[in-house]
Amino acid sequence: MGHFLIRRLAGAFLVLVLVSLMSFALIWLVPGDPAAAFLDASATPEQVAKLRSALGLDLSLPQQMLGWYGRILSGDLGQSILLNRSVTAALVERLPVTLSLAALALAFAVFFGVAAGIIAAVNHNRWPDQAVMTTALLGLSVPDFWLGLVMVLVFAVSLGWLPSGGFTPFMESPGQWLRGMILPALTLGLVQVGFIARMARASMLDTLGQDYVRTADAKGLAKLHVVLRHALPNAMIPILTVIGIVSGALLGGAVIVEQVFSIPGIGRLIVGAIASRDFPVLQGGLLFLAVVYLAINLVVDILYAVVDPRVRLA
Amino acid sequence: MQGTRLVGRALWGRLLRNRSFVIGALLVLLMIAVALAADWLTPFDPLKSNVRARLAAPSAAHWFGTDHFGRDILSRVMIGARISLAIGAFTAILAGIAGTLSGAIAGYFYHLDQPIMRIMDALMAFPSIVLAMVVSAVLGASLTNVVIALAIATTPHTARIVRASVLLEKEQEYIAAARSIGVGEWTILFRHVLRNVAGPLIVRLTYVFAIAVLAEAALSFVGAGPPPPAASFGSIIAQGRDFMREAPWITVFPGLAIIACVLGLNLLGDGLRDVLDPRLKF
Amino acid sequence: MAKHIIFGAALAAALMLGGAQGALAQRKGGDVVIGISQAPPSLDAQITSAQASRNITLHIFETLYARDENAKPVPELAEGVTISPDGKTYVFPIRKDVTFHNGKKLDAADVVASLERYRKIGASPALVAAIDTIKASGEHEVTVTLKEPQSTFLDNLSSPRAPIAIYPASEAAKEAGKIEVIGTGPYKFVEYKPDSHVKLTRYDGYAPNPKGTGRDGFAGKKEAFLDTVTFRFMPEGGARTAALEAGQIQFNETVDGPTAKRLGTDNRFTIHKVMPFGLQVIKFNQAQAPANDVNFRLAVQAALDMEEIMAISYADIYQMDPSWLYPGAAFHSAVGSDKYNKSDIKLAKELLAKSSYKGGKVTFITDNLRPNVDTATLVQQKLKEIGVEVDIAVSDWPTVSKIGFTPTGWTFWTHGFGIEPYEGPGSVMAPWVNGLSQQAKDPEIDRIAAAFNAEMDEGKRKALFDAFQKHMYDAAVAMKAGNYGVFQASTAKLKNFKPYRIPRMWGVWLEP
Prior knowledge:
A: mainly alpha; 12 helices; about 75% helix; about 0% strand; C: alpha+beta; 11-stranded mixed sheet; 4-stranded antiparallel sheet; 21 strands; about 30% helix
């Protein structure tokens, strides 16, 4: 186990170095200038250059690279060019927003996904199975932003049940917060429901076929009891892995969903930073997302290795 | 030779008995047929604006309505099928080539495994839509660059799948046998190992195709999709979203077309997986 | 003294008018949320010329001189000005009744520090390029000397483009983007949540300009009734409209024609037209083939159907007008109308045949703003009819604005010119001087612009501007498609709103 841990951590560290390098490389790959966001169409290149130096953007590449690594090693992601605050502060501000959105979506996806998967598995090859699986596949085939737009049209504009966008902090008004989060979380979660349902079904079918479950079944224990007490806990292991994957996908999906619903989360921060060439925010945000993704996967891998010793040898 | 043909026929028979495969294949073939025949099928010129017919609701003349240029949405969706499918297909081909090469080399040559796979891991650590947006910002928005961006985002996972299969395959006895009679390593890799990786790869690339059709639409939505006059599914939606309330048909119909297309590809992928790669469960 | 009496009478009249209205409806209180499409790059007003910043900062900050409703410069924080006979020395008495949002009294030191800061890091350095020295010549008096006399100096000083905002001296000492947002305007800054909103609250210590007569452009009396004004950043047009309909916002900065039409029939909402708001301009890159050839440019100019471009890009909110100035401007002119909006394919083909263009693709660059992409799409479609193949390259603003000021990588570029015609004829000519926007020097334009800036006689200045406009058409230096406006929508409860270059939240109130 110790050996596995060391190997896994070393690998993760290597990836981290690559990720930081890639995040930095964006500066000279992405064309355009952060100063341009400040100026209108008739700004001359001289004006742009002047503003660049006023904003302290006219450093050479090696200087910038030295600064980048110097900073991230001391846990500092630098200063945003546009937001008048540090990148870390900007990220910390958005983190609860994106996390709560992703958490709601995940809860929604896991609950309905696992439930649907169990229903399908228990009714293997009968109509509920087919209905669930078809719906799951349909869910996987819907573009998330389109679903968001249609949801706004139906639930916000036509029916007027829920707000069309915007964000109320939980501390300000929990009720408003929840109302505002329902449509985005549904949009974000629906695609993952399909994914989890398919995985849960496969995993349940596997365990339902195992001897001990058959024995329990043969002993005449109630079907529901067998499924929930005996089969589900064992089926949860692969499902947990999928939840790891889903968490990564949710972070990516949040980028789009935050855009549709005007939610000030990390996704919108990064999309905005691409558009305005706020490179420190873009670099810091990407690095942050990547680290979160790596951490989730590391934890899932280690958990998996703890549960299933064969993995350590692979 | 006789043997492979028999195996092929058996596979084909199993595919045809697989409901997912058949329905998926029919849907995808229908889409491809529309895409190929779009020039003859479109009731109107999909690029021609018509000031007098702007934002017309669906009617006998314009089944899917018109956009703010007065262009016929049905015609645009038909042409859109061509562009979106082309983007999907080329992305699958590109990701297939890049993923197979990197995955196979990583899996087969031990000392290259770490460097290649860590790069793939690093790429996977960025949300693919953000990665595609950044690539699109670097290269500029064009059809080719959208394909490149999507291929970069879908290659790492493809490489992982190929690598896993190669790792399994290279331990087989026939490989050791080939090596013992002096067959070169690259020959073994490309002649023998990769042939057996084909199943999982085809399944994966079908999904890549589906992912690319979805991701193209998302890219268009954030303003990094193919430029006009291209009418991909995504760009039609993106152009219509300012008029979402007044002319929902501009957004709704291409969205439904995406669903049909991606659903078909996913069904096709599921069917192929059941038959070609039974190890995978979901 | 006589002047004061006239002022007094005007004031009394204004008060009576205001009083009549006020007795009925004027009401303090209420909160307005404005949905705006873009977040401001900065609230440091001096360092940005972005519309998104101006929308907000001009509620917070004021300038020495400001533009009135007809875009003429009038005193704001200055009481007036005395100009020396040689035109080089400007003495500004500063108002003594003004207090900053932090409680500090405005004095000459603040003005000097703010002007000096603008000279160093202001986003429109041309505005203050003529200044030689700035001195506090009294506790409430500032003396500015110019290197050369400049007839447009007060125009420059009052330009809202990247406003020469007056900060407290303590803030004016700070670097770009590092200031505390403290001004003298009718609203004061509360908070800025990136990607979410900027919130302002009424500044009860605001001292209205005693010479002001009610709401008057960016100047005049700025009476704030609302308790708070929040600018919420909502990039999705559909989301802004939905939010207005759901009552989450009270004002939508910009809506599309079809949406405006629909909301207009609903008595819960009021539609406002800001007309004109800008000129839709299509630029040529004259540094390289084929647009370096005048016949190619004339061919394109002859071919385009400008009315179609405007009707689709700016549905229901455009004017067809050949002038490079807004209707009503002193120098507005129809010169060149014989070459404007011709849609003459036959003529275009003849001209194209005379040009050096022998096929091949040309690139049209545009940012991803819908009307600009629409314009590019329609130009592409039209030019296909005369045999010119156009590729459209859509990028975001930073990329496009970078490429568009280089001599390669583009042939056409379209965007709006909004603030230039508002500022006046000098600003309209400036982008073409020295070949800045067309990437090749045009001696004729350089000659006209130089003469124009030196000329003091209005009649001769008008003749020079006519000559400029004629040349724009005769040589197809660049093309103007038409004037566009902006539809804004608000709740019908918002009273007494008057559209202007920014959604002014002074002089308006909310009915319960």
